[in-house]
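Dissemination and training. As part of the outreach component of the grant, students in the summer workshop were shown how a complex can be specified as a set of sequence lines and then modelled as a single object. The example used during the hands-on session is reproduced here so that future cohorts can follow it. Participants entered these lines:
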Amino acid sequence: MSAVLAPTVRIQREDFDVAAEIAGLTQGRSDIGAVVSFSGLCRDEQGALSALELEHYPGMAEAEIGRIATEAVERWPLQGLTVIHRHGKVRPGENIVLVVAASGHRQAAFEAANFLMDYLKSRAPFWKKEHRADGSEGGWVEAKETDAQAAKRWKSPSE
Amino acid sequence: MTTRLIYFAWVRERIGMPQEDVELPAGIETVADLLRWLQSRGEGYEHALQYPDVIRVAINQEHVDHREKISGAREIALFPPMTGG
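and obtained this result:
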């Protein structure tokens, strides 16, 4: 049996470099045939938004994303997995979240990245607050039922 | 035993503090019991927890549902549905 891959999970205030993170998984290897990366960015909502403030639960954020990432490496044959989630103030156009999944073939990489994002949305302890361009505070972003439904489709019948 | 309660997002704002250490009275056995007891502690709590079904809970940094027993919990966090990603 091959060793189970240990995913990389980082929770950080600073921005990240998507290309560098992809290179970090593939450099010096010849067994990877597919890399899927997903980046989530902050939208400006047609000019109405000046920033998003991301609150998180330190400790649990790392632990919960770690649990989700571990489930992904158990379900799909991955050769690399990196998940980065930012907290603090993020401006329109900036990165919020990154998932990079590397595998021998594309299907596992696509599915694992999709699974990670669906689960992150409904289980990772982060909350977004809007800062409006007109200077008002805005409110907390409401959770979407469609995100909860998206996560449910990955459940196995036994769950 | 002292239990640390931690609040996030609008639960934190409505209760008016990020965390507190409490001595849970006898008879508080489950998460649902805890939410009922907290609601009786004042206006901020009542406002934060008026729709208990939407409140998400983690014990010792793991998600639990409202039927979960809380005995032995060091840290219980209450928060709204998550909106990361």
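Residues 40 and 93 of chain A are 10 Å apart (CA to CA). Students were then asked to discuss how this feature might be tested experimentally.
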